[in-house]
């Protein structure tokens, strides 16, 4: 829930300082969690309060980094660039699991203290070296789609300075939380991400347990092997994020891409549950494919889509909505990320088939929430193909901007 407030603050404060405070605070409270090992602390409330405080500081991260990266790139290649950039989340998941497993033999406290020290160190690196926008280093902001082309008519030439002055006036005022919810496309994508992250985080938390308790080719894998094998889901997620970003750039259609991936995740989940136990190669293959289709739209929505909506045409050039919009979308998704694993803990005691049915239903609902946006994008494509005045490749705005 802290992410909603973090985005609101992120658009009003210096992102470099805001991100540094979040990283250092996260490092401090993560280390305090680990110090409970040497302090022989067994109080439930100590760990609860420390974990909640760490979560609040962590919530500053995603809205801030998406806002920073979003300011550096225009919309034409934002999907591909941010898809590649977003690979750091999966790499972080894999690295965190490996670091924790290696340090566990020295005492579980080290699994928290070492990451805490590392994030504090890199928080200081961010403070000294992060340029939050092109203007911070004297460069021009990439506004390839939003700025008008060189005017050829006198009327256009007179309008350009007016539009620029209007933008400059709007940039000083941050967009409010309720106002950000009203930006066309924010609510559908936020609700879509609720169910997309429900599926993704259920796999993140429960996949190692599921693998270790499912006979694959008649054999049960050890907990360590199951944990290492489950990282392939994140590897598929890296590929899916890059692929979804690239496709959405080529089609200039974020909603179509995200919805298509969510619908493809349904048969992927079905095949993984039905045939993943037959052999290890089949399990790896279907796990990779499932990770690609589940994490693909998740990555696309939390990066390129959030950045697009944070610079929506209805904002009239106001760039101080990026963090707020990102926080709304990813914050809503995080609620689903909390509910999914919780429901799985209850449902899995009855049947894992019911768990996968729940996940397939969630993927379906996620895609359905984008139906109106998909229809708008399809209609836009049909109109473009019929138009004789220009080709789709020369269009400068995204259909999302016109919803």
TrEMBL record:
Compartments, as annotated in UniProt? Membrane
Annotated ranges, domain Major facilitator superfamily (MFS) profile: 1-379
Task: Enumerate the transmembrane spans.
Answer: 17-38, 44-68, 80-104, 110-130, 186-206, 226-244, 251-272, 284-309, 353-375
How does this protein lie in the membrane? Multi-pass membrane protein
Q: Which GO terms describe its molecular function?
A: transmembrane transporter activity
UniProt-listed SUPFAM superfamilies:
MFS general substrate transporter (SSF103473)
A Pfam family assignment: MFS_1
Swiss-Prot/TrEMBL GO biological process terms:
phosphate ion homeostasis
Keywords, alphabetical: Membrane, Sugar transport, Transmembrane, Transmembrane helix, Transport
UniProt-listed InterPro entries: MFS, MFS_dom, MFS_trans_sf, Sugar_P_transporter
Cellular component GO terms held in the UniProt record? membrane
- Stated family: Belongs to the major facilitator superfamily. Organophosphate:Pi antiporter (OPA) (TC 2.A.1.4) family.
The name on file for this protein is Major facilitator superfamily (MFS) profile domain-containing protein
Source species: Cannabis sativa
Organism lineage: Eukaryota, Viridiplantae, Streptophyta, Embryophyta, Tracheophyta
This protein's gene is called: LOC115706709
């Amino acid at each position: 829930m802290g992410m909603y407030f973090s985005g609101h603050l992120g658009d009003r404060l210096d992102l470099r300082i805001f991100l540094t405070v979040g990283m250092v605070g996260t490092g401090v409270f993560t280390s305090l969690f680990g110090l409970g090992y040497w302090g022989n602390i067994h109080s439930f409330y100590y760990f609860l309060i420390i974990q909640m405080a760490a979560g609040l500081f962590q919530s500053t991260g995603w809205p801030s980094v998406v806002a920073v990266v979003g300011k550096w790139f225009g919309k034409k290649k934002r999907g591909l660039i941010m898809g590649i950039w977003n690979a750091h989340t999966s790499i972080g998941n894999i690295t965190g699991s490996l670091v924790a497993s290696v340090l566990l033999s020295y005492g579980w406290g080290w699994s928290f203290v070492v990451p805490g020290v590392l994030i504090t160190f890199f928080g200081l690196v961010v403070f000294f070296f992060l340029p939050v926008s092109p203007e911070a280093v004297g460069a021009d902001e990439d506004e390839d789609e939003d700025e008008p082309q060189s005017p050829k008519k006198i009327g256009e030439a007179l309008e350009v300075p007016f539009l620029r002055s209007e933008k400059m006036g709007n940039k000083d005022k941050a967009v409010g939380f309720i106002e950000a919810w009203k930006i066309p496309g924010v609510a559908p994508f936020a609700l879509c991400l609720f169910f997309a992250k429900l599926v993704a985080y259920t796999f993140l938390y429960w996949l190692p347990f599921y693998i270790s308790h499912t006979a694959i080719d008649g054999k049960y894998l050890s907990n360590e092997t199951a944990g290492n094998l489950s990282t392939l889901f994140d590897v598929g997620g890296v590929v899916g994020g890059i692929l979804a970003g690239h496709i959405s750039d080529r089609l200039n259609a974020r909603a179509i891409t995200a919805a298509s991936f969510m619908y493809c995740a349904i048969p992927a989940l079905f095949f993984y549950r039905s045939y993943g136990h037959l052999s290890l190669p089949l399990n790896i293959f279907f796990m990779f494919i499932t990770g690609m289709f589940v994490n693909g739209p998740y990555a696309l929505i939390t990066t390129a889509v959030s950045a697009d909506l944070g610079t929506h045409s209805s904002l009239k050039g106001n760039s101080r909505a990026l963090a707020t919009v990102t926080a709304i979308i990813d914050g809503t998704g995080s609620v689903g990320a909390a509910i999914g694993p919780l429901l799985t803990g209850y449902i899995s005691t009855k049947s894992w088939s019911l768990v996968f049915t729940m996940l397939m239903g969630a993927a379906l609902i996620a895609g359905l929430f984008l139906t109106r946006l998909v229809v708008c994008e399809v209609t836009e494509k049909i109109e473009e193909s019929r138009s004789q005045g220009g080709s789709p490749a020369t269009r400068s705005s995204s259909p999302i901007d016109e919803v």
